[in-house]
Amino acid sequence: MRQRRRHFGRRNPRGLLSRIHYAFRERQIYLRSEGEVQFITLRPWVQVAAIFAFTAGLFWVAFATVNIAFKDQVLALKERNQYRARLEYEDRITDMRTIIDKLNRRLLLDQKAYLARVDEVRSEQDKLVDRHEQLADFFRSGWLPARAGTKSDEEPQKQGSLTPRGTIVGETLLMQADATASPRASDKYTREFTTTEEALQPLQDLRTYMAQMEVGEAGLIEDATGFMADGNARLAEVYRRLEINASKVAATSSYTPDAVGGPFIAATAADLGSQMLADKVAGLSTELDTWQTLKFQATRLPLFRPMGPEYKTSSTFGLRQDPFRRRPAMHAGIDFRAQTGSPVQVTAAGKVVKAGRNAGYGKMVEVLHDNGVATRYAHLSIISVRTGQKVEPGDTIGRVGSTGRSTGPHLHYETRVGGRAIDPVKFWKARDVFQEITR
């Protein structure tokens, strides 16, 4: 009984692993031949491999059988799927071609609008060319002086006149304008754009055109700056002859234009188009400011006679024989012969710093002008101003007399720069040069 229960327990194992192990337990196959008994042991892995090989072969046979039996149906199904996919692909290609055609038509319209806009900008540039041509004509009219070193520059410098300088500049600018002239973009670019480079080419042409215009503008500004520099140099030379430092005059002057104002907003490269033009305009502005200042300060110099042309000079500036001691002496002014009571006029705007008797000058008026320039009016019979009074050119400051160290009625007139006596004739000659230069 015990042996049977034990055998029954091995035939009914519990658990999955136990069942698998039991199913593929080691087996033996006995072979009996001619009275001899032999056996073959089948181990568990051999059993598993045999079952796996049998199953694979069974599946392969089944697959081959089905494939042979339903080959035509499978091929037909594949062909139908391929045909359906090809139709869908062709439909997608058709739709894409339709979209591309619409885009091409839209791009063609955009290209026309784009080229029309380019033409508008080009028209604005053509207006600039016209304006530059007018400027070139202005230069041709002889506004600018001849360039330094030319033959035409030598004689006018001596005579204090102006000669043409801008002809070359104007012609160059016009040549540049002609060279940059090209057909309208809408006429030139008639073929549809196919690349980015073709679409950007009209803009590149405009940039080239504008760059050439900028060069022309820079040339005009350079010549204008050169003109102002030449004028400033000539004004400075006149000041030098009067023993006045023009640079100091320009730096210390309080000159401001009349009836202008507003907050200061410095011009930038964005306002003028480029940093190069901004720098050149700044240079021109500096020269122009110096020009206006020197020209204004020239009007503050004693450039006129204190008496009319009908009054002749009786003694000039420089060495002469002293009328009292009969010895050589320095005469620091000019004497005007006139009747007692003849009016004496101040020769420039200024402030009276002396008005009264002054030793050998007798009754004298001294007026201080700008830039350290002073004028003296001596031997007066009557003084019509007082110390501290401001006077303007042409104001009567007194009457001719014979007070002080004098041999008869006359006006003794002096001009002084920094306390040093300067021949008044230099100022009168400078007046004509100033007027010629600033005309």
Keyphrases for this structure?
439 residues, Glucose Permease (Domain IIA), 3 domains, two-stranded antiparallel sheet, 14 strands, disordered N terminus
Q: How would you describe the overall organization of this protein?
A:
- By secondary structure, the protein is α+β, with helices and mostly antiparallel strands.
- The chain folds into three domains: 68 residues, no CATH class; 195 residues, no CATH class; 125 residues, Glucose Permease (Domain IIA) (Distorted Sandwich), CATH 2.70.70.
- Helix content is 54%, strand content 17%.
- The strands form three sheets. Strands 3, 6, 7, 8, 9, 10, 11, 12, 13 and 14 form a ten-stranded antiparallel sheet that branches. It has a two-stranded antiparallel ribbon with strand order 1-2. A two-stranded antiparallel sheet has the order 4-5.
- Strand 4 and strand 5 form a beta hairpin.
- Helix 4 packs antiparallel against helix 6, helix 8 packs parallel to helix 11 and helix 8 runs antiparallel to helix 12.
- It is rod-shaped.
- It starts with a helix and ends with a helix.
- The N terminus is likely disordered.
Quick gist of this model?
By secondary structure, the protein is α+β, with helices and mostly antiparallel strands.
